[in-house]
Amino acid sequence: MNGAQAVIRTLVGGGVDICFANPGTSEMHFVAALDDVPEMRAVLTLFEGVATGAADGYARMTGRPAATLLHLGPGLGNGVANLHNARRAAVPLVNVVGDHALAHKRLDAPLESDIDAIAGAVSGWVRRSLATSAVGEDVAEAVATASGAPGQVATLVLPADVSWSEGAEVAAVPGRRPAALVPPAVLDEVAGVLGGSTVLFLAGEAVTEEGLLAAAQVAAGTGARLLATTFPTRMARGAGVPDVLKLPYAPQAAMKELAGVEHLVLVGAKEPVAFFAYPDLPGRLAPEDCAVHVLSRPGEDGVAALRALAERVAPEATPVLSEPHRPELPTGALTPASMADVVGALLPERAIVVDEALTSGIHLSAATAGAPPHDWLTLTGGAIGQGLPAATGAAVACPDRPVVSLQADGSAMYTIQALWTQARERLDVTTVICDNGAYAILAGELQNVGARSGGERAGQLLDLGSPGLDFVALATGLGVPATRATTAEELAEQFAAALVEPGPHLIDAVLRTGS
Amino acid sequence: MNGAQAVIRTLVGGGVDICFANPGTSEMHFVAALDDVPEMRAVLTLFEGVATGAADGYARMTGRPAATLLHLGPGLGNGVANLHNARRAAVPLVNVVGDHALAHKRLDAPLESDIDAIAGAVSGWVRRSLATSAVGEDVAEAVATASGAPGQVATLVLPADVSWSEGAEVAAVPGRRPAALVPPAVLDEVAGVLGGSTVLFLAGEAVTEEGLLAAAQVAAGTGARLLATTFPTRMARGAGVPDVLKLPYAPQAAMKELAGVEHLVLVGAKEPVAFFAYPDLPGRLAPEDCAVHVLSRPGEDGVAALRALAERVAPEATPVLSEPHRPELPTGALTPASMADVVGALLPERAIVVDEALTSGIHLSAATAGAPPHDWLTLTGGAIGQGLPAATGAAVACPDRPVVSLQADGSAMYTIQALWTQARERLDVTTVICDNGAYAILAGELQNVGARSGGERAGQLLDLGSPGLDFVALATGLGVPATRATTAEELAEQFAAALVEPGPHLIDAVLRTGS
To answer: What is the CATH number of the domain that holds B304?
Structure first.
């Protein structure tokens, strides 16, 4: 067995049977070995950021890593932005980065670069596999490490000759170690501070349905308030699920939400901080005199901790759940508000919503709170261009669930190539482009940072209207059927049609903003 | 003056008056300062790989650095592949990478990452600017370092508060130090080995018109042969210029070209090595018993050395120059050969050819050798996705020259967003997509590396035909007028029309391969 065959068989044996790939010459033995291991499904992408973002979306929906197959340092570089997002989302992910054969490294061939340095910036674990005889063990450790609690990005650098040489062996991936339990003393501490001026700040497992139910029981019994992190990895929402507000993105709004809080209890979350620094605002968003407590760290069993807490402080309490309710189908102008109402009115059962709508998405949470239960995936790491790839990966992970990809226009253009993979794999993804013809979020930020605004040359750098992007043409060029909606009625009609037809669709929702 | 203003003014003072930009929140003060310094032209890109590739193309044509403006680690990551190419091309380039304010760094906000590690992998010089009072000096050093001989990538990490704080000063950029001269003893050594079994292997300045003329004079007088590096940064070609063969990409062909060579003289070039390792081939391409001599290293004055050598060994010799000649306009099937003949027949005066045609481009050199003088830019670093951005930057650099961008289809999809910037800036770029519906180069590599080929699942990973990419639709969506050619006559007609119309055009050349 050659190294590449052992890599793929070890991956498959460890439950990693999807590989989002953009291979080059140094990965050709991996590609050839796909014919020997039919259990591995390779999904081709046109750009590495699609592969890494898809692996992120896949992991969010399955809890298991997908592999990526990337070509040397530049290929890994192209995947960095979405690996950053995956790292911040604490999802399991295994990168296989091909490299030159060992003897070729010293020749400083044109594609030689410091792969390990780039990998280190986005990975929790990096290893360069140096011997075919050990490559199976290396892969097994990559999978096990990626799959730990919390999940992380593991990057295996795989020299070409380690792939092509014979003498490799498949290694067994050890079973996943369960998450650590929160010690009783911590439960004691938190139980002692629950009350009307306390907020439970939820992320990770704490915003699954189980986590939210337990947290809502605590809230119902103690008067504590619930808030979720601004950009959760995967949040359960909809009718029958507690409706928990996500902390607003804008620091002023977030600080208002946290004003008066005396005890902030972190459950799988980090202390809330502003996304960016602003000249006259603090970076920490909780009040200065607020006491911060940690119920569970990322990777600890936050759901069990919440359940234990509920059992202890609110055994009889009934969590408040979202009632089933949907907005009326709107008519007239297509605005962020009416777009949200269309989504809320029509969101199908068990939908996976991938939300990179940014400024155009501010009404989405309210409009969908009573829709049928669904999962909500967000831009955890803040590096735009994750939405279309993550929707792709989520659809690969859950072929029986509809994926709704709500995508800002400027951000869509970083990884628009994802649409081609959606077409190629016939994935059931409905993309709605929130088309406002601008980097709208930056117009706000230009003011927020205190920069003098209004200058014409500065404004040009935030404008996407010259020339306008034609997303219908772009989707068509990538093999995805597409339509354009300029009224709420058109969006409703096209959204409903896309949801019942199989395969991917894109709707260019031309938004009237400022209204 | 705030830090951002000093950054831009120092850049402009140092001759860096183009900035290829994809900014985010941490760059908003830089953006705002554009209104204060009208001498700086900011060119917006939709994706950072376009910005870095454009800066590479700009530098190849001007010899001066452009700046890029990138957003934090993920933005730099998106630029890595083309920064790798720029590094390998030894062009001057200054990255300005915004980062969080200093006090915000310790909060580990979502977009926090190890920018410096990523920057180090693609830069010859990295500095984090830590004080507004010194930021002008930091920028001046970045420009000076980038502009040295050889050129290099200099990356300045610019924290937001260093940008927004007052108290900055403009610094003067020192003049460019001339390239070092080759010592007489080296000339003695090389002069002693010139003859029929000697090859002068040329790269960098040695493949400018001046360099080629001097090298051809040496060749004419001594019987030495000339070969150019496989992927030169910028090579002078056409009628009146010596026609020098580029070493073939395929290692077998390259070794054949070098067979029997007893003395290999490197002029601005590194010793030729295979792009990739293959199981049964050596990495070094010159014969084992070939003596390698270095006339000039990258960054030394290779042109002066070649002239001195010519003066010494061949003062009376006349260099052989390409005669003006063009292929006939072809008819019938559109193939790599007929495509090359169309380009050769119609290439305009003073064209800049950006060649990322890869396998489809094998006939281009022969077909254009007698065309009017032109410059030829290639994929020096081997990271595909450089062509469209480099064409964009070359057109910004030389608004009075036509740019012809010959682009493989699969490679085009890494940075297709470049077309939008071409439309926005109304750049005179004619793009020909070499559309063969496959990663054709990899089909060859799959065999070259000795992998069993023919497997269906492996073959699928090299196929771009399912669904087919519609480059006319993609270009239209990005604002570039586009047509499709399926015969040689259609390509000729469309190519001629595109060359006379101002602004960018794209032709999807649907190639019949294997004929």
So the answer is: 3.40.50.1220
Is B77 touching A (CB cutoff 8 A)? Answer: yes
Contacts of B125 (CB under 8 A, 6+ apart): B141, B142, B145, B146, B152, B153, B154, B155
pLDDT tens figures, B74-90: 999 999 999 999 999 99
- Of the candidates B216, B364, B387, B361, the residue with the CA atom closest to the CA atom of residue B303: B216
Residue A454 has pLDDT above 70, yes or no: no
Q: Are residues A308 and A377 in the same domain?
A: no
Residues A468-493 have pLDDT tens digits of 999 999 999 999 999 999 999 999 99
Q: Are A247 and A254 a contacting pair, CB within 8 Å?
A: yes
ipTM of the complex: 0.97
Tell me which amino acid residue A320 is: V
Task: Give the H/E segment covering residue B29.
Answer: helix B28-33
A133 & A48 share domain: yes
Q: Among residues 44-63 of chain A, which lie with CB inside 8 Å of chain B?
A: 44, 46-47, 49
- What distance in Å separates the CA atoms of residue A146 and residue A154, rounded to the nearest whole number? 5
User: Across chain A, what does the average pLDDT equal?
Assistant: 96
Locate B206 and state its tokens.
Answer: 């040695």
Residue B453 pLDDT: 56
The residue among A18, A35, A158, A471 with the most chain B CBs within 10 A of its CB, best to mutate, is A35
Domain boundary among B102, B132, B164: B164
Residue B449 sits in a domain of what CATH number?
3.40.50.970
Burial class (CB in 10 A: 0-12, 13-18, 19+), B65: buried
In which residue are the tokens 């991917």 written?
A504
- HEC per residue, B230-247: CCCCCEEECCCCCCCCEC
pTM for this prediction: 0.98
Of the candidates A21, A26, A467, which has its C-beta nearest B461's C-beta? A21
Range of the domain at A142: 3-164
A392 plus A475 within the same structural domain? yes
Picking from A29, A17, A13, the residue whose alpha carbon sits closest to that of residue A55 is: A17
- ∠ CA B159-B161-B166, nearest 5°, is 130
